[in-house]
Amino acid sequence: MLLLLFYTGDERYALECQRVVEVVSLIDLKKLPHAPEYVAGLFNYRGQIVPVIDLCFLIQGTPCRRYLSTRIIIVNYQGSNADTSSSSQNQPQLVGLMAERVTDTLKKTGDFVAPGIVVDTTPYLGGILTDENGMIQLVQIDRLLEPQLINLLPPEAKAELPVSRLKAAE
Question: Distance between CA atoms of 9 and 80, rounded to whole angstroms?
């Protein structure tokens, strides 16, 4: 499996490359008044309005620094309970993930290991992989929007989610 590596502060994280649509340069975003602080804003991606989550703020509580390598990673969000069939009624939602030092990929050669401690408020943080530079934690995209970020989805995307997950988000 190929992984896209990024940083939040000095910690390394990874996303599965098969879920990445595109990595784009950091641009000015439309702010959303009264949105949670980890919501960086919205931007127009090829004619579609896409919410952007600041992974640095979400994970560490501090906004991403504006490095030349700070990027917005456009990913397909399907949801952990979503049907993965190719039905046109179950299309993934595009979500932007802002992260620092998005510069490397890594071909996974070992297995991810459970971190040993599971924090209920971070269900999106998965297993850990080690390499010669230290530890890398997997960010599970389909668990990222559960339940605190579901309300950012446009109404047509929320219509595809199971009722139990929508109630948890309210």
Answer: 27
